[in-house]
Every structure is written in C-alpha cells, then in structure tokens.
Design goal:
Largest sheet: 10 strands, mixed
Structural class: alpha/beta
Distance between the termini: 56 Å
Number of helices: 12
CATH class of the largest domain: Alpha Beta
Strand content: 15-25%
CATH architecture of the largest domain: Alpha-Beta Complex
Number of domains: 2
Order of helices and strands: EHEHEHEEHEEEHEHHEHHHHH
CATH superfamily of the largest domain: Spore Coat Polysaccharide Biosynthesis Protein SpsA, Chain A
C-alpha cells in the first residue's frame, strides 16, 4: 500500500489538477492524506470537499503555518498506513502510470527509494524544460535509461556533485527510510532551498542499499510565482548557497561525503559566499548560516574570515 501525502499551502488553483492526477492512477492500492498548512487562498474549502472521496483517509488543517515543508512531511508520515510514501506536492502533477511503474521496483528488499524523470512546467502547465538537460553536465548522463545502483555509488558519483533528484514529487520512498532520515538531529526547518537534497543524501548514506530510476517522464514539476523553487533573486541565491555549504561541510558525516568533493565546485561556492559576505546582504548571510546548525556553525566568522579571506584573496 502507498500512502500519498499531499502537503498544501496556497495552491488552491492547482489542487484539482493534482488530485485528479493521483486519483486516476492505474495502480489503486493507496490512501491519500491531505495536509493544509494554514492556507489563506480558499484551499481549505476545496480540500474539505475533496476529503469526501473514498481514497482520502485523512485531512488535517493547521491553525498556524508550520514554517517548514518537512514538518508537514513528518505529520503525514506518522499517520500513514502504507509502507511506501509518496510526497505529492500540491502544485505538481503526474502521469497515471506513475505508481504502476515505481511500486513493483520495491519487490527488491534492498531498495530505499525510486524516482522517475521529470518535465518542468509553468503555472499554465506548459513544459519548458526536460530534466535530462539538467544532468547533461555529467560525463555519462545515466538518466537516459532506467537503472538500479547501490546508494553509496549514486551518492558519491552524482548526488554529491548536484541534486540529481530535483523534485520530491518524482520520488517513492520506503517509509522506514524516509522516517529515519527525518528523525535525524538536524534542524530541517532551517532549510528552505536544499532540504530535500539533504534528505536524499542521508537516505543514500547506507551500505547494502539501492536506488532505482525510471527514465519515463512520469512527473511534472511546476514552477509558480512566489514558491520556494524560485532562485533568481540575490537573497534567494544567498539562501541556496548557504544551505549547500552547510550540507557539504557541516553535515558531511551524516550524508557520507567524507571524500574531497570537486575542487572547482568548492571554489565556485566559496567565492559566491565570499562575495555576498562583503555586500549589503552580509547580515542576512550570517544569520542564515547560523540557522543551519545547532552544533557550532553559529560562528560564521570562523568559516568566512579564516578560510575565505586566507584562501580566496589573491586568487584570480
């Protein structure tokens, strides 16, 4: 059985399309858990009506916004009856064969998660990006075909370099693996841009486990104005860079990235952080770095002014 958790916040205009893409799945052994994080756009009225569908087992309305998608994930997981979890974000959509393609892969007892290829769509549903392009920077673009590999190799060869699972709606998790990751003593609430990447990395930091990929485009990843996927503005770029640094450096033990990661990637990341540390957003960057740890990362100057000033000044 699959428990489909749909966390919603102010996606009233997409909810019907999202629910239709789920309820019309060719694989029907699932329950739907609807979560609303104190929406203000009329979503709750729509969800109350949708809750009458026999596949909807629970609908939960927060009276106050949780401030974190991961709090909503955990809320749904704790109430889930299935041993497979699909976090189906409320503004995305899926092909009706999504579960039919992914669920059988879990006959493999070593499988921790499986995911499918995605198209990126805009607010109107128009496809503007094929995610196979996102992974074309790798020497071998393994996402052109289906594969199953051990999680350590996947993490070290690919996930360490960039988030090659760009949308959680494309993923089916084994419940115990997702619950284990989210139960780690990590301040997930502090992550606004890269928290999902951290979750995947923790899940993949295990020996004798595997991950599978389906190359069919079974997921449509929506980009809408004002959501957390927009990274174009300078403050949003600061947040993403700070979170990337925290994952690679502060949480390297939890994610298993003990080996030296790409020197070029490190220089690019540090240069960007250094540039922002000298500009008008210096205070914002400092506060963001502080929020990403509960174990000493609060002293941002140790990183910025010891490592960056010593290592970057004078570099061409």
């Amino acid at each position: 059985m699959v428990s489909i958790i749909i966390p919603n916040f102010n996606h009233c205009r997409f909810i019907h399309e999202r629910l239709n893409s789920i309820l019309n799945q060719s694989y029907q052994d699932f329950e739907v858990i609807l979560l609303d994080d104190a929406s203000t756009d009329g979503s709750q009225d729509v969800l109350k009506e949708l809750s009458k569908h026999p596949k909807v087992s629970q609908v939960i309305f927060n009276t106050e916004n949780s401030g974190s998608p991961f709090a909503q994930w955990m809320l749904g997981i704790k109430r889930a009856k299935g041993n497979l979890i699909w976090i189906a974000e409320s503004d995305d959509r899926s092909e009706k064969s999504f579960l039919d393609e992914l669920v059988p892969l879990f006959e493999n007892p070593k499988l921790s998660l499986a995911y499918a290829q995605s198209f990126d769509i805009d607010e109107t549903g128009h496809i503007f990006l094929d995610r196979i392009e996102y992974t074309s920077s790798f020497k071998e673009n393994i996402w052109t075909h289906d594969f199953t590999m051990d999680t350590i190799s996947f993490s070290n060869d690919f996930l360490m370099k960039k988030n090659v699972i760009p949308n959680v709606s494309a993923v089916l998790f084994r419940k115990e693996e997702l619950l284990r990751a989210l139960s780690m003593p990590i301040p997930f609430k502090a992550f606004r841009k890269c928290g999902d990447w951290l979750v995947y990395a923790i899940i993949c930091n295990q020996s004798d486990r595997e991950i599978s990929f389906i190359s069919k485009h079974l997921n449509h990843f929506r980009h809408s104005h004002g959501n957390t996927r927009e990274n174009d503005s300078e403050p949003q770029r600061i947040i993403r860079l700070a979170e990337e640094w925290a994952i690679r450096v502060e949480y390297k033990q939890e994610v298993g990235w003990r080996a030296q990661w790409s020197k070029d990637m490190q220089r690019i990341l540090e240069r960007e952080l250094y540039k922002f540390s000298q500009g008008t957003h210096r205070k914002m960057l400092k506060e963001k770095i502080k929020s990403l740890s509960n174990r000493g990362l609060a002293n941002f100057y140790i990183f910025c002014f010891r490592e960056l000033l010593r290592g970057l000044i004078g570099r061409k």
